[in-house]
Amino acid sequence: MARRHSGRAVKGSRFHLQCLVNGDPRIDLNNFILARSQSLSDYANGQFEWKSPLKSQGYIEYRDAAFLTQVGLPQLGECLSSFWPRLGPCWDALATVPGKDYGHGVILVEAKSHVTELGTNSSVCGAKAKSLNLIKASLEISKKALGVEKETDWLGKYYQYANRLAHLYWLNSQQIPVWMVFLYFMGDINQRGPEAELDWRKHLTLMKTELGLLENHILSDRIVEVFIPLEHRDIHM
To answer: For residue range 193-231, what is the model confidence (pLDDT) as tens digits?
Structure first.
């Protein structure tokens, strides 16, 4: 399955992200991201090329081997299947960025506009049998690499964040220059979302504590947290 969502969103983080990726002139998403990551800024040698969710493609969001194809890494599809089962993370947005080494880097994006999107009791891993065993094994490898205690629960309500970190770890282990962008919208009044960065950070700190994440780990410089004010914008694209 290549996608979870397609079509124009009407509200929430999907709507706001679709606006930014497809050219909202009031916010330069590339610069917002670059300003939050020294390692990405040092690597980049040009503008991001957004691969999804594009208006011209019906705003499709990609997952599994299809997301690798979108960012120019189709050769890793078989390797991914040995790390994670089908119906893995469906990426809110994907981009590539030219690097100073003449290669290209990969940008993965997860967007949120209200706190309950971070995780609830209904967000736990629902995989069964062989799929669950593979997920558990890959999460254990990722936790060990990040210095997280083995008994820490990564299958619970913050499973979505955890599996994104696992994929970031996996791509990094394949020697791919990759950055995971967690994009948090501020001031989504329709979704009753946080108004300020500090409001978001209170919830993010709690989540990271429950996931056992250290303040600094081997992927710290590949994780980018971006906070974007909406200012109650009314956009139609």
So the answer is: 899 999 999 999 999 999 999 999 999 999 999 999 987
What whole-number distance in Å separates Cα of residue 102 and Cα of residue 219?
23
**225 within a domain of the structure (yes/no):** yes
d(CA 112, CA 227): 10
Number of independent structural domains in the chain: 1
Kindly tell me the sign of the dihedral angle through the C-alpha atoms of 199, 16, 92, 27. negative
Instruction: Evaluate whether residue 211 is within a structural domain.
Output: yes
**Rounded-to-integer distance, Cα 92 and Cα 124, Å:** 19
Q: Is residue 3 part of a domain?
A: no
Q: What tokens appear for 198 in the block?
A: 């500090």
Q: How many CB atoms lie within 10 A of CB 215?
A: 6
With respect to residue 30, please indicate whether it lies within any of the assigned structural domains: yes
Retrieve residue 209's tokens: 């504590």
Global pTM value: 0.93
Q: Which domain holds residue 210?
A: 12-229
Q: Low-confidence residues of the chain, pLDDT below 50?
A: 1, 232-237
Q: Determine the Cα–Cα distance for residues 107 and 50; give it in Å rounded to an integer.
A: 9
Q: Which of 225, 223, 222 is nearest to 183 (CA)?
A: 225
- Predicted local confidence at residue 47, as pLDDT: 92
Residue 101 is predicted with a pLDDT of 84
